[in-house]
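Listing S7. Sequence submitted for prediction.
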Amino acid sequence: MIENHQLDSTIINLSTSAAPNLEHRLQEIPPEPGVYFMRDATDRILYIGKSKKLRTRVRSYFRDGNHHPPRIAMMVRQVVEIEFIVTDSEAEALALEANLIKQHQPYFNVLLKDDKKYPYILITWSEDYPRILLTRNRRIGKGKDKYYGPYTDANLLRNVLYTIKRIFPLRQRPQPLFKDRPCLNYDIGRCPGVCQSLIAPTDYRQTVEKVAMIFQGRTGELIETLTVQMQQAAENLEFEQAGLIRDRIHNLTALNADQKVSLSNDTISRDAIALAADSKTACVQLFQIRAGKLVGRLGFTAQVPSLAGDLEATVVSSPEDLGAILQRVLEEHYQSADPVEIPLEILVQYPLPDGEILASYLSDRKGRKVTLITPQRQAKAELIEMVEKNAMHELTRLQRQSERNVASLQDLAEILDLPELPRRIEGYDISHIQGSNAVASQVVFIDGLPAKQYYRHYKIQNPDITIGHSDDYASHAEIARRRFRKYAGGVNTDDADFPDVVMIDGGKGQLSAVMAVFEDLNLADKMCIVSLAKQREEIFRPGESLPLPTDPEQPGVQLLRRVRDESHRFAITFHRQQRSEKQKRSYLDEITGLGSHRQKQLLAHFHSINYIRAASIEDLAKAPGIGTHIATEIYSYFHPQ
């Protein structure tokens, strides 16, 4: 076991700016199998990887002339320290890498492209009463939380969730409807009264564990377990309980029977994985087959160069390269899976370069032998062909979307007279109501698509912008200075987060205010700055009194409109949040002795102003930090004589 093996650990200080010493320092890394860590200046782990030759793999990140993908380039610029752990074999390195990634969850350990397309099921095991959520961001939550997916059919997934909430008594609302009693869902048996703690956390978690079996592809096993419970309840003359379990079995059987594909009758659980790839993108499909039926279809979109182990963009065509992609996807997928979710048989489209190592690692986790097969004929080969066909359809869809994005970027480059296609476009908007709760938004589009991980909110800090006095020009100028002051004088403008195009939502006035800031920062000639007016969808450039001669429906203008609309939506959403929070506070601010901290405690306890208004002095005094004296003040405020 890896825990009992004596490991050698060495730390090398590495500065990517120290080019003369870089080669010498990298030579200190041994050409042995192991795991390597990339750390930044704050000692935060950026990335954890494995290799059967540590020196070759780590050197590839810092080789002169490499054109890294944006994600890798951003990571390499932050690396100041490398740590590695040498192991006896690559199998030990694989197991150690999986454990370390689970423990540290590094930001750049996202092999699969995060395009927010596929949804996941999240079960919040970190909470006393776990919630079951649909999410498109698998990096949120805490370490104990569990993700299932990603699922390719969002509508089907929502229908399954709807059915599950009708089969099992689960929490139905994100927030309680009433403060001191359960809602109608409790009376009709849909909810066990989680909001009022009418069920013990351990009992509720047992119910959620049964639901988790469905997302693990273990519906048949769950039906068998419920059948035994139904028989026991009947033997104990608990006929009402037996009837409830019978109804659940019936509904689960109907849910399990609604499959798109039915394979030959087989008791072996298996996964089948295949891909379709071009020079940049690999679309991977993974079918989960349990008892001869398709119970799940997962989809992944991967960046080909980083998956293939080559940091340069090359055309991937050989079976070896495609097998390496499948291997890396399988490693990441099963690292986060529970042992019961690992099938006994995995069908792969191409032979894996380290298939024996992966099979050994999965067998150790499963506790039973796991077999990897590259089928060549009969039913298993036909299954792989079906999976590959689905992957090809997804790749075709992405290629068409990419072609539309390229056409929009080409048209925008012609409109703005840019020397090359703009990679990063940033859009800014201001939102307020007559100067109150003034906020700004920054949205980012990369290669024509929203990159939500780079979105930012700003609260306007200008003291002259208050209720009844708004100034969009000054607001835009403030945000431009706060966003770009670190680049003053043209410093580090070659960073990946420096935009090619900046779009201001507004007309010539807003554009002039922003340009004054860029000229003061000596950045006016470092990027293309434009504004987009709403009424006629007109594009204005600095120093030009007339808009550019464009058609509102041409691809480049439509791209700017999408950026503008997204920045507007993002700004309004944040403004509404701030206004809602302020409205909650406005009542409580007037109560003597109720400071900001106690306000937060009071709202956290009662959830709304209406509940606080309806509460008695005794109920108010039970809230954390609220004694009888302050409770009396609160009650007197809402119930004046």
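Caption to Listing S7: primary sequence and predicted structure tokens for the chain studied. The mean pLDDT is 81. Residues 2-104 form a domain with the GIY-YIG endonuclease fold (CATH 3.40.1440.10).
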